[in-house]
Amino acid sequence: MAPSATPPPGGGLLAFQPVRRRHCAACSRGPLSLLVLEEGAPRCLDCADLGHLVFLPRGDTALTRRSREASALSAVVVRFNRRQGRYERQGVLVEEEALALAEERCLADAEARRRRRARDARRRAAEDLRFTEAFAREIRRLFPGCPAGRAEEIAAHASVRGSGRVGRSAAGRALSPDAVSAAVRASIRHLETPYDQLLMNGVPRPEARRRIAGSVEAVLREWGLREAA
């Protein structure tokens, strides 16, 4: 369908990206990449008094909105999609000065967002550090015989944000003894027993856990009783 078809509804000026070769009815310039319809006849942007505007493609909502707000004259650019049978928005025509001003404002916002993300990251890092330290203290309280440094390693592994590990569960964040013990058991299972090798050899997980259960319990008893002994 050519741009002489019925324009899409909506207020404001419209410019078209033609779907076939068109020439300006006033100056014969063409083929045109953008045109305006006046009484059904195509006009180039210069003949339509829009030649001083610049094209801003769609995609950045904030930049488009600010450009149109700052531009005394603007037009929406559309193109007819033959497959869908409708006009689709491609971008806007705005004054170059308005676009430059909008870009400056968006860059300022981007910098503000960057600083906010950096502050949030520092805050989360501090929160994570405090939580990991508290988790390690609870490990040492429940298992006073835990080797030096091991409690910190277990806590750091179990409490990684977004990991889905036991330390990030609701029980883990509440420092539930069951959750803390589960993190300790998992560490012992992987580092003090042949559990990983059993899995690599094709032993089903429930069976592998059954085989190493006694070894895990032995280490737990050692870590829990060493100080008292």
TrEMBL record:
What Pfam families does the record tag this protein with? Answer: DUF2293
Start and end residues of each DUF2293 domain: 138-224
Q: Which InterPro entries match?
A: DUF2293
Show the PANTHER family listed in the entry. DUF2293 DOMAIN-CONTAINING PROTEIN, PTHR38113
Q: What is this protein called?
A: DUF2293 domain-containing protein
* Organism of this sequence: Streptomyces gibsoniae
